[in-house]
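Researcher: Please predict.
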Amino acid sequence: MARTLINLPKTAEPGAVVTIKTLLSHPMETGFRPGPDGRILPRNIVTAFVCRFEGEEIFRAELFPASAANPYLTFTWTATRSGRFSFTWQGDNGFDQTETAAITVG
């Protein structure tokens, strides 16, 4: 399991624009770089990120080999009601990780 950091406020006023930041610790190997033995290292990247609020998709990103290691994503959301976010990263070799965080609006 990769290490994740999720930064979002625990509370917000209704209608406030909230900035959500995520960081995933992942090596992101492009599949083009030779290893120490001269052979090409196999591709190992995160290919997709989805954020959902109470099951409704609010943000999606597709990532490609040119993405940096430890992908950092930031986006905004307008606070409408209290609830739970789920953050899902998917990638090569069956990589799939989901984390959650809650916010109270009021």
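Model: The chain has one domain: 4-105.
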